[in-house]
Specification:
- The complex is a heterodimer of chains A (113) and B (112).
- Chain A is mostly beta strands.
- Chain A contains no helices and eleven strands.
- Chain A is 0% helix and 55% strand.
- In chain A, strands 2, 4, 5, 9, 10 and 11 form a six-stranded mixed beta sheet that branches. In chain A, strands 1-3-8-7-6 form a five-stranded antiparallel beta sheet, with no helix packed on it.
- Chain B is mostly beta strands and 112 residues long.
- In chain B, strands 2, 4, 5, 6, 9, 10 and 11 form a seven-stranded mixed beta sheet that branches.
- Classes of the chains: A mainly beta (113), B mainly beta (112).
- Chains A and B meet through strand 4, strand 5, strand 9 and strand 10 of A and strand 5 and strand 10 of B.
Chain lengths: 113, 112
């Protein structure tokens, strides 16, 4: 069975500061990993994903994540936060094949001026 | 053009009623899903269909019945609504199972 742990239900940063949202996963097979963002009262939008190949993945809006197999982690980063980044972020894992996504509990990113 | 659409966006109803939520995708995807997001924002898969065939059916009360008339549509019918059914229901689709999922805007259900 797969599981995802997102450390911190809320993360607060100042505008211009580094954003780091943590995600650890467990999977019995090589995982597919995803980060989704949810803005208030909206659906989920894919930020980036890792399936195979390069372990550093670049996504939309300046976000990137690095797959570290030894640490079973897939942390999301952005060098400089913008006010518009304030949203809920979800990490998810899939073991490919006929499998659905297992989501973490989400991390709310708060950005202050 | 909206890739994954859901209707209605908001649904307020009384306990005991029966209601349906519709989902349509115009991406040509084979696989569609229903998720429930509770008040704490936790997302949990309910059902998954591949080419109109049910492939995932998580532990969901049998008051919930999905129906896929064709691979572009996956509707969710809920009988005898209960207070605990209040949540946001998201439809999603992917090219095939395990691939990137694209989500609809959600249907906010409130049972009074």
């Amino acid at each position: 069975a797969q599981s995802v742990t997102q450390l911190g239900s809320h993360v607060s940063v100042s505008e211009g500061a580094l954003v780091l949202l943590r995600c650890n996963y467990s999977s019995s097979v090589p995982p597919y990993l995803f980060w989704y963002v949810q803005y208030p009262n909206q659906g989920l939008q894919l930020l980036l994903k890792y399936t195979t190949g390069a372990t550093l993945v670049k996504g939309i809006n300046g976000f990137e994540a690095e797959f570290k197999k030894s640490e079973t982690s897939f942390h999301l980063t952005k060098p400089s936060a913008h006010m518009s980044d304030a949203a809920e972020y979800f990490c998810a894992v899939s073991d490919s094949g006929y499998s659905t996504l297992t989501f973490g509990k989400g991390t709310m990113l708060l950005v202050s001026p | 053009d909206t890739a994954v659409s859901q209707t209605p966006k908001y649904l307020v109803t009384q306990m005991g009623n029966d209601k349906s939520i519709k989902c349509e995708q115009n991406l040509g995807h084979d696989t569609m899903y229903w998720y429930k997001q509770d008040s704490k924002k936790f997302l949990k898969i309910m059902f998954s269909y591949n080419n109109k065939e049910l492939i995932i059916n998580e532990t969901v009360p049998n008051r919930f019945s999905p129906k896929s008339p064709d691979k572009a549509h996956l509707n969710l019918h809920i009988n005898s609504l209960e207070l605990g059914d209040s949540a946001v229901y998201f439809c999603a689709s992917s090219l095939f199972a395990g691939e990137t999922q694209y989500f609809g805007p959600g249907t906010r259900l409130l049972v009074l």
